[in-house]
Design a protein that fits this description.
The protein has 239 residues and is an alpha/beta fold. It has a six-stranded mixed beta sheet, with helices on both faces. Helix 1 crosses helix 8 and helix 3 packs across helix 9. The chain starts with a helix and ends with a helix.
Length: 239
């Protein structure tokens, strides 16, 4: 029912929302992905069996919003995990700006499926929200990614869909509509996580200016660090 209500709102507000969306797309500041290696080791001086971490997803995994990959999500999550587990963490980031979960399944998953991995974090939602991916397909594609990794012995966790209602780059009407759409996808993802017996981790981040990059759409270095610390607090229980 919530999905039908959202579509009804979109139909009513479309004459206002569509011109805003076109204008925002044309005028939005576009930042490049972070530069630097997509793999690394955190806590190399630690003893114990290294934890092999994969972070797979969209522009936040590619590090948009910061200049170098050491400030981005995967490297920061590895640092936070090694601090909690006192183990080395070998991390790999596999992300693409603008990608949806279906595209990631066909383009990114084959790149990492044969790589030895203990723990994988799947980070999707913004592009599927803006592309109006159906809830049914969203769930099916996320499930396919998780099951393909699980079949290789990987523990999987889902990052929650970012709350687009707090993205300052968006006009208020788009924040309202896309925030509602993202919440629908996130609710479905949480149910899927429950069925699969994996973690669903809502994004717990203060969406003030200090936590956002200059584009008002991606995390800043501080945002990535705090996000990673919150993720590590829960993911460390699985290793």
């Amino acid at each position: 029912m919530r999905t039908y209500v959202w579509w009804a709102k979109l139909l009513v507000l479309a004459p206002l929302a569509l011109p805003l969306a076109v204008y925002t797309r044309r005028t939005a500041l576009r930042l490049p992905p972070a530069e630097g290696p997509q793999t690394g080791v955190a806590g190399a001086e630690k003893t114990g069996e290294p934890l092999r971490l994969l972070v797979l997803g969209e522009s936040t995994v590619a590090g948009v919003g910061v200049t170098i990959t050491s400030f981005a999500l995967a490297a920061q999550l590895a640092e936070a995990l090694t601090a909690r587990t006192q183990r080395p963490v070998c991390w790999r980031a596999c992300g693409e700006n603008g990608i949806t979960v279906a595209q990631a399944r066909s383009r990114l998953l084959p790149e990492v499926l044969d790589q030895p991995t203990d723990l994988a974090l799947l980070v999707f939602g913004v592009n599927d929200t803006t592309h109006l991916t159906s809830v049914h397909r969203w769930v099916a594609e996320q499930a396919a990614l998780a099951e393909a990794l699980h079949a290789r012995g990987v523990k999987v966790a889902f990052s929650g869909v970012p709350p687009l209602q707090h993205f300052s780059a968006l006009p208020w009407l788009l924040r309202y509509l896309l925030g509602g759409r993202g919440a629908l996808l996130d609710t479905a993802l949480k149910r899927l996580a429950g069925r699969l017996g994996v973690r669903h981790m809502p994004i717990q981040l203060e969406f003030s200016q200090a936590y956002l990059a200059e584009d008002g759409f991606h995390p800043s270095a501080l945002g990535y660090r705090v996000w990673a610390q919150n993720l590590a607090e829960r993911m460390s229980e699985d290793v």
